Amino acid sequence: MKTMSVMLCRLGALAALAAGATGCSAITPVQAWEKGTLAKPEMLMEGDGLETRFNEHIYTSREAASGGSGVGGGGCGCN
Fold first, then answer.
1. In this structure, how many other beta carbons lie within 10 angstroms of the beta carbon of residue 66?
2. Alpha helical stretches, state H, the chain
3. pLDDT (tens digit per residue) in 32-60
4. Cβ–Cβ < 8 Å for 57, 51
5. What was the pLDDT predicted at 13?
6. pTM greater than 0.70 (yes/no)
7. With 60 as the cut, is the pLDDT of residue 3 above it?
8. Contacts of 38 (CB under 8 A, 6+ apart)
9. Where are the domains of the chain?
């Protein structure tokens, strides 16, 4: 009885994998005229550049430190 449930579980996993692979095959590349929508300033992750600079200025003034908004180490000196 246990082997039957294992077989059904494997069959279900195989069916889910096949359905996922079939769904991914329907993805089409982005056309040239559709790229303009993604290039709008509203679509940026950080938002407005001036607002970002202002927020960094407030942070450095409040914390009395500069940097920390980019990529770097964890504060222990090991980058």
1. 11
2. 2-24, 35-38, 49-63
3. 888 887 778 777 777 677 888 888 888 77
4. no
5. 92
6. no
7. yes
8. 30
9. 41-65
Tell me how crowded residue 65 is: count the other CB atoms within 10 A of its CB. Answer: 9
The alpha carbon of 54 is separated from its chain's Cα centroid by a whole number of angstroms, namely 25
**Residue whose pair of structure tokens reads 């679509």 in the numeric block:** 43
In whole angstroms, what is the distance from residue 49 CA to residue 41 CA?
Answer: 10
Query: Which residues 6+ apart lie within 8 Å of 30 measured at CB?
Result: 38
- Print burial letters for 5-20: b (CB count within 10 Å at least 16), e (below 16): eeeeeeeeeeeeeeee
Q: Could you give the CA distance from residue 46 to residue 1 in angstroms, rounded to a whole number? A: 56
The candidate with the shortest Cα–Cα distance to 48, out of 59, 37, 40, 60, is: 40
Please return the burial class of 3, using the count of CB atoms within 10 Å of its CB with bins 0-12, 13-18 and 19+: exposed
